[in-house]
Hints:
By secondary structure, the protein is of the alpha+beta class. Helices cover 30% and strands 25% of the residues. The protein has 2 helices and 3 strands, in the order H-E-H-E-E. Strands 1-3-2 form a 3-stranded antiparallel beta sheet.
Amino acid sequence: MGRSTSATCYCRSTGGKGYAQEAVGAVLRWLPGVVPDETVVATTQSANAASLRLLGKLGFAEVERFEEFGAEQVCASPNCLGES
Length: 84
């Protein structure tokens, strides 16, 4: 299995302005040229409605739910991979 990267940072004053969608979208367009054979997945807490909306806007679909860190998590992957 490939590398796993996690980032946790949020600045409330920038929330809802589309910066996350723009930044993550740019990474998703760039990534296949760097690691073409890797599968992209995203994980967030099921209670994080904003992150779930962002994943949907970026074309991600839920793959599974599981418990971790004392809360339900959602694992999602881009729809283009044929997973749902």
